[in-house]
């Protein structure tokens, strides 16, 4: 009970003693003068060349304001009721106002990589441009989170992209993964404002970075599948490449999702009439793996139908090969033997052998009933071409 009373009193005091926004500029001016002063005292122990290596942040944001009159970078102050947070728009610092005072949350100091680990801090501090970029990335990330909170998804997306770019510049493997995650968040934000193009580019960048990391293969593969799903109706060729990348990465990771990516790849290869590649996917990977997994065995006969028709397309409608495929797959897969798909394909082969267009059309109608919604367009195109050889007219 006493703790609750103390908490309530603290909240009341925090609200009443919250510093006014106009006190931030004087605070920051004083803060920067102190930084210059401490920097001057330590410079006596360094060489003149090291002093010249202090990079543009001090010159731009400290020296110039002090010599040419106080100039504070553009900043944003957000009121959180109990306290206020001020963020410099260039990502170089963030501050909190609480109990009548302003405090430093984070402040970036760019230094040259030649300056070594002791410039501007203790020997335990990280220094160099990588540390600066990491700090900038965190500042952009916080801006993105704030923008999301305000439902400014476009602003959030841009901030996440900037965060990702800064993480990339830092160079470390860990930050490369952070950059990939930021790109994913940017995609989600772009998706909220229906900006598909920039969002897809962000996903591609995320996949690229995950792929470079030895622990990111499955994550990259998942994104490539997602990209394939997003672009397959607008850019089938690109979707094929995305599914191919996904399948290869999953396979290299020993991930069972490689099969599902390969199925999607084969279906689109048929749409592009790259029938030999599609047949290879079915014959070498999809059919053997679905037959070997008890939970997927029932799907094998559907894949066999697709494989046989893809092989028909690859062989320029060689019906002798189709008949051979039928015999082989009947022996290979007992579930396929006597199935509706097997019977329809056999009826097609018989009608073509007998040159009977009416029987061929009847077999096509049986094929069309195998799937809800009918045959896919690529199968209709193959069989329509054969029907036109037998007799001019429509197939279905």
TrEMBL record:
Pfam families: SNAP. Belongs to the SNAP family. This is Gamma-soluble NSF attachment protein. It comes from the Eukaryota. GO terms for cellular component: SNARE complex; vacuolar membrane. GO terms for biological process: intracellular protein transport; vesicle-mediated transport. The keyword Ligase does not apply.
